[in-house]
Specification:
32% of the residues lie in helices and 15% in strands. The chain has 20 helices and 22 strands. The structure holds 1-deoxynojirimycin (NOJ).
């Protein structure tokens, strides 16, 4: 790809994958359409002119960082050569699967100690099988001091004591396989716990080979750079007795591994193979796009830092060796085992995703992109009503451009976010219709649905009453930071909106959960569970809903009508995205409603979603 310079135009920048996603994000924040660049004089402005014009708003550092990232990426996505694009998606088990995420700590408690465990999960396998789940993704179950609930791993080859033993794990794996399901583990290798033996050795002996497993820097009186931690404050821990600092992008006990050290890669790949040899079927890879950091760990740009709230992010969210390291894991571990991979990749947009998940590239099978979880200009700590028109537009954009060599993950919830239903509606009367609408889209759009535990029970956000009820390290740190600017009530109000604890309360089928205060108790809504089961079955029985083409029939305000078709079957899905009833727009002549036989009337109820199937000749 030709090197871009300050004489390149905005259009040229935008035509590159990184330029597209980054400028696209800025446009979104400013609520401007793409046409602003592609169809106007502004697109022809040279970068150096733009730098002057946006000096106050974006700053030169933004454009320089962008230029650097663009020039670093030598590859182009496959769809730039359309003749090479497969006409149809390749078939694999994970495209057909419905994957269910378990957060072990709060899923099922088999021994009444108030903490979920592995035996509890094994006891629920029949429930999951009956729901129609094909694969389980387990959030971390490894030995950990639990500073970040297991995302701080002390020993990758040991099970967390509260969750049980390795025998319990082996039993879970065996039973999962016996029931015809697959098991996917969480791979947390951007960082380890500071209690991991590698870090302990690195700290106790500066000459040990483990010193270079992490980012240690000599203490010259201040932090080695201005990077900040996602959980608040500087990203550096100071070790005075060592005269040194070490880097942690997450909590103070989650120390970043130095992936440029080949020994780190070798040890991590060994560990991955150890689990794959045991028979696990793949991995969800925690913040995997952060593993390659810019050499020398330069300061983050001020303007980018204030815009994104995280100083330094441009130096690691799409680092110089990311593709190389992902390919190495794929070649040395995943491919030889036929293992599945899904990467958690915050900040990666559609075009960059193509460069990570294009099947010809051999990096990852899928990624989680998070741009759909909050509206432009909003973060999860903002109290607002999420507009599903935004979700519709996001989905259409990906469905129409992602290409048959890539495959989407479809999800609304996970252990890091409040429940989507509670963002969409603040009126409990609409919870059930919104939950059903979200489910219909999740199981009839093109991609692999990831159900988060409790989605299928109709769970919503919890009515936390005080900061003491929260246990998440992020919420606690942020609360302390907020107290510097806000009264305690206001600080708590903000935290309550976005806390990760909403999705971490023990599921309501636990006996111990009944001991929770009333305001932290919810009951599973079996009608939602039945609805999930029916939808999952429908998807399984009709390949048109998996591999079929996707076509938009209407995207007028508050409406989303689309067709899925594979030549032999044809489905139309009509969704009312608003809280007002509205006339149906699709005329179902020759079609029959599926799942809800009364769904053929002329008016759609608030948030109603209907599925129609073309009648086949008798
Ligand atoms: C992303 C995980 O999903 C989150 O729970 C965790 O806190 C961070 N990565 C750090 O591992």
């Amino acid at each position: 790809m030709k090197e871009l310079t300050q004489s390149s135009t905005l259009k040229e920048l935008y035509s590159t994958p990184i330029g597209h996603d980054t400028i696209g994000r800025v446009l979104l924040q400013l609520n401007l359409s793409e046409k602003w660049i592609t169809g106007s004089l502004i697109g022809n402005l040279k970068l150096k002119t733009l730098m002057k014009l946006t000096k106050k708003s974006l700053g030169e550092g933004f454009w320089n960082a962008l230029l650097h990232l663009i020039n670093q990426e030598k590859d182009l996505p496959l769809d730039r050569t359309p003749e090479a694009m497969p006409k149809e998606p390749k078939k694999t088990w994970w495209k057909e699967a419905v994957i269910y995420q378990i957060y072990p700590r709060s899923f099922a408690d088999s021994n009444g100690d108030g903490i979920g465990d592995l035996k509890g999960i094994t006891e629920k396998l029949d429930y999951l099988k009956d729901l129609g789940v094909n694969a389980i993704w387990l959030s971390p179950v490894y030995d950990s001091p639990n500073d970040d609930n297991g995302y701080d791993i002390r020993d990758y080859r040991k099970i967390m004591t509260e969750f049980g033993t390795m025998e319990d794990f082996d039993e879970l794996l065996k039973k999962t396989h016996e029931k015809g399901m697959r098991l996917i583990m969480d791979l947390v290798v951007n960082h380890t716990s500071d209690e991991h033996e590698w870090f302990r050795k690195a700290l106790s002996d500066p000459d040990s080979k483990y010193r270079d497993y992490y980012f240690f820097r000599e203490d010259t009186g201040k932090e080695p750079n201005n990077w900040v931690s996602f959980f608040g404050g500087t990203a550096w821990n100071r070790y005075p007795e060592q005269n040194a600092w070490a880097l942690h992008l997450f909590s103070k006990k989650q120390m970043d591994l130095n992936w440029d050290n080949p020994n780190v890669r070798e040890d991590v790949i060994d560990m991955i193979n150890w689990w794959l040899d045991k028979g696990v079927d793949g991995f969800r890879m925690d913040v995997i796009n952060y593993i390659s950091k810019e050499a020398g760990l330069p300061d983050g740009d001020e303007a980018i830092g204030s815009m994104m709230m995280f100083y330094g992010i441009e130096h690691y969210y799409y680092g110089p060796h990311l593709h190389e390291y992902l390919k190495e894991i794929q070649d040395k571990a995943f491919r030889p085992h036929g293992a599945f991979s899904v990467g958690e990749t915050p900040g990666v947009g559609r075009e960059m995703a193509k460069l990570i998940t294009g099947e010809e590239r051999g990096e990852l099978d899928m990624i989680f992109s998070f741009d759909q979880l909050d509206m432009p200009g909003r973060v999860r700590f903002d109290y607002y009503e999420y507009d599903l028109n935004y979700y519709r537009d996001y989905i259409i954009d990906w469905m129409e451009h992602y290409g048959n060599n890539c495959w989407m993950s479809l999800f609304y919830n996970n252990h890091d976010n409040p429940r989507m239903v509670s963002k969409v509606t603040k009126d409990p009367a609409f919870n059930v219709p919104v939950e059903k609408l979200l489910a219909v889209m999740q199981f009839t759009l093109k991609g692999t649905p990831f159900v988060y535990q409790g989605d299928e029970m109709g769970l919503t956000n919890y009515d936390f009453h005080s900061i003491e009820e929260l246990s998440d390290v992020e919420s606690k740190n942020r609360y302390q930071e907020l107290l510097e600017m806000h009264a305690p009530e206001e600080a708590f109000r903000i935290i309550r909106t976005g806390t990760r604890d909403h999705t971490r309360v023990l599921l309501p089928w636990n006996e111990t959960a009944k001991n929770l205060p009333d305001h932290l108790t919810q009951s599973p809504d079996e009608s939602i569970t039945d609805f999930y089961r029916d939808l999952i079955r429908l998807r399984r029985e009709h390949p048109a809903l998996i591999y079929g083409t996707f076509k938009v029939l209407s995207r007028k305000k508050n409406r989303f009508v689309y067709e899925r078709s594979d030549g032999s079957e044809n489905f139309v899905i009509e969704c009312n995205l608003s809280k007002d009833a509205r006339p149906a727009s699709f005329r179902p002549d020759g079609y029959e409603p599926v799942l809800d036989p009364k769904g053929a009337g002329p008016v759609l109820a608030p948030y109603e979603a209907r599925i129609y199937r073309k009648k086949t000749e008798a």
